[in-house]
Design brief:
179 residues, four-stranded antiparallel β-sheet, three-stranded mixed β-sheet, 7 strands
Amino acid sequence: MYAKNKNKISKTLLITSILSLSLVACGEEKKKAPLIKVPVQSYQQLKVLKGLMVNKKGSEITGKLTVADSAGKVVASTQLENSKHYSVKIPAGTTLPVLLTVTEKGKTEKLRAVVISSSVSSYDISVLTTKIAKRAKELGGYTYANMVMAADSTVGVPDANKTSTGFKGDPTKQYGGWH
């Protein structure tokens, strides 16, 4: 009799375990919601965006800057004539994020930056912002959460400041002397 009860208990545990695992596996198929939720933003009035453009050489840029809204529609553009600075007017009602794209005359590679906040009006466009924009797109689009993750994985920040910048005194005594 003891063997029959032990067998029933074992079968019950086995069936319960299998059902539990199948339920857990089904639950993981659901798409996970982003950890950082930010409401959709748009410009309530005309907004002027300004900033610097820095290509690989750090030289002045001749070409075109285009601004596309979250649907990919071009909402503004401006010509660039031997400058590192830009200024462009974004119309009221434009929904964020907006993508700033610099196309240099005679070059195929484009510089990009993504605007994700309606309160900021100064955005630099560089090789680094281009890498961040590309990474965010790979992560699923230009959402706030993807931009944060893209910036975190793209920008290398040391764990601690291990440089001697700003150190005044005997360099042989910094960090306990020479190693």
